[in-house]
Design a protein that fits this description.
mainly alpha
């Protein structure tokens, strides 16, 4: 009998960051868009798109929409990540998106940074 792992949505910002790193490992990373065009339930994602997938469970054209359930958790995770990176905090995450899209940034760096920011949050509280 094959055991299929289940996904439980995280309920802390650090949990969201760790889950976003795992999402990118499993589904791939991209730049210049939250998700590439196409109609797939689990597309490759940029860092903000991966955080959005973790919170929302599906891709939205605008994962930062303040009217979606879970927005406060998504925003808290983004603020931790921007703080960890020393970027200005902003509700639209423009600087974080710019970091993701920079030529020097790659998937391994994004995944490592998501996990490091989660560990850094609250002094490494898990």
């Amino acid at each position: 009998m094959t055991h299929k792992p289940t996904f439980t949505k995280p309920d802390t910002p650090a949990g969201v960051l760790r889950a976003a790193a795992l999402y990118l490992e499993q589904h791939g990373w991209t730049r210049d868009n939250y998700y590439p065009t196409g109609n797939t339930p689990f597309p490759p994602a940029c860092v903000v798109g991966a955080i959005g997938m973790t919170v929302h469970g599906k891709p939205f054209a605008t994962p930062l929409d303040t009217h979606r359930p879970g927005h406060s958790l998504l925003q808290a995770a983004i603020l931790i990540l921007t703080d960890y990176l020393g970027l200005p905090a902003s509700i639209d995450a423009d600087d974080l998106i710019g970091w993701n899209d920079h030529d020097a940034t790659d998937a391994a760096h994004v995944i490592h940074t998501l996990r490091a920011a989660a560990d850094w949050n609250n002094g490494g509280q898990r």
